[in-house]
Amino acid sequence: xxxxxxxxxxxxxxxxxxxxxxxxxxxxxxxxxxxxxxxxxxxxxxxxxxxxxxxxxxxxxxxxxxxxxxxxxxxxxxxxxxxxxxxxxxxxxxxxxxxxxxxxxxxxxxxxxxxxxxxxxxxxxxxxxxxxxxxxxxxxxxxxxxxxxxxxxxxxxxxxxxxxxxxxxxxxxxxxxxxxxxxxxxxxxxxxxxxxxxxxxxxxxxxxxxxxxxxxxxxxxxxxxxxxxxxxxxxxxxxxxxxxxxxxxxxxx
Length: 253
Prior knowledge:
The protein is of the alpha/beta class. Helices cover 46% and strands 22% of the residues.
C-alpha cells in the first residue's frame, strides 16, 4: 500500500521509482489477464465478452468432435466435456455473467457426454442462445436445441441419424434394445426442447431416401427452422441481439 500511495504525497527519486513500479505492476497484471484469456480460448474454446449495459456474456464454442471418456488422437479437433461442465457451473454461479452464447460446429461424438452437456445447458437459470455456424450433426442436435433460443446460419447443417457404436457389438436382442433406449433419450430430449414432435423426429432419424450409405436426414439452414428444430435463421448479430433481449426480459421479472 505504501508504494501505491507514496507518489501522491511527495517528490524525489524514491517516489518517482515507486510510481514507475506501480505502473509496471498494472501493466503486468493486464498482460497476465490477457495471457489467461488466450489460454482459455486455446484450451477450452471459451471467452467472457466485455461488459455492456446488459451485462457480461460468456462465449462457449463446441467445435470438432465431442470427446467422451476416452481421449481421441492428437490430430482431431475436440471439445472436452470434462472442461465445459465445471465451467458452466462456474458461469451459473457468477453474478457478473448475465448470459451464455453457444457457437456450434460439430460432427457429433460421444452420446453420453454430449447429452450431459445438453442437460447442463438446459438446466441453467441464465439466458442462453445457440448459433449453429457450420455443422450440428448427431449429438450436436440436442446441444443446439438445449438453449432458450437457437439460430442457424443459412448454410449450416443439422444431421439426424440413428445411434452408432464402435468396437465389439454383440448381436443379440438386448443390444438392439439398448440402442433403442439410447435413441429414446435423444429423441425425448430434442422433442421436449424444440417444436418438433417425437414421432416426426424419429421418422427423420430413420429416413432411407436421402443418404445413400446411411439412414437419416440432413437439414440445411431454413429447413431446420421449417422442421421446428431451430427457432430462426441468423448469424452472430441476431444471436447476440436475442441474448441481450432475453437478459433484459429476465431483469424485468
